[in-house]
Amino acid sequence: MSFVRTLARPMLASSFIVAGLDKLKNADDTATQLSPLLQKAAASLPFQADEKMLARVIGGTQVGAGVLFGLGKFSRLSASLLTVISLLNTFVEWRSADISTKEGRQARRNQLLKNVSLSGGALLASVDTAGRPGLAWRAEHLALDARKAAAGARKTTGKTLHKADKAVRRAVEHTTGA
């Protein structure tokens, strides 16, 4: 891992970890804030789940993904989870912000910009391959190499067949001409 990644991952992860711990500590407030979304999520689950438990799951997921990302373990997966959670938080905070005053609207805008920036950083990290090729690149180049090998094999086979044809014709001419 490069020096920049070693430094940047924990820096980006720290915000998510602290927010996740806050969600765990204040699960009642989180459940209230996320209530409209959590009601829909709880209704679609095949088992009985309450909003407070789902708020804890979201907070725990945020802490776990943040720690894994900060340590550089499963960094693309954990960054993807953090992106989804961050976008969810962005939507909920933007929707529930107080906009009755000029200061409230300004605070809402600043919070939105901060959340969108964190989401963008996590999204960028979710596609970072740390200098190693990703699966799509590997698959594309494997297919390209296979096509080149097949073309080379066709060319070699064609030359071999042409040489064999010449040899057979010479042998037939030699046999019939003698």
Question: What are the SSEs and their pairings?
Answer:
Layout: H1 3-25, H2 27-33, H3 35-44, H4 51-71, H5 75-96, H6 102-126, H7 135-177
Keywords:
178 residues, mainly alpha, 2 domains, 7 helices, 85% helix, elongated
Give an overview in words.
The chain has 178 residues and is an all-alpha fold. The chain has two domains: 3-126, no CATH class; 133-178. The protein is 85% helix and 0% strand. The chain is built from seven helices and no strands. The protein has helices at 3-25, 27-33, 35-44, 51-71, 75-96, 102-126, 135-177. The model has no long low-confidence stretch (mean pLDDT 84).
Q: Would you summarize the structure shown here?
A:
The protein has 178 residues and is mostly helical. The chain has two domains: 3-126, no CATH class; 133-178. The protein has helices at 3-25, 27-33, 35-44, 51-71, 75-96, 102-126, 135-177.
* Spatial gap, N to C terminus: 75 Å
How many domain regions?
A: 2
Uncertain parts? none
Mean pLDDT over all positions: 84
> How many beta-strand runs?
0
Biggest β-sheet strands, sense, barrel: none
Percent helix, as a range, is over 70%
Into which percentage range does the β-strand content fall? under 5%
Rg, nearest Å? 30 Å
How many helices does DSSP assign? 7
Given the helix and strand composition, which structural class is it?
mainly alpha
Order of helices and strands: HHHHHHH
Shape label: elongated
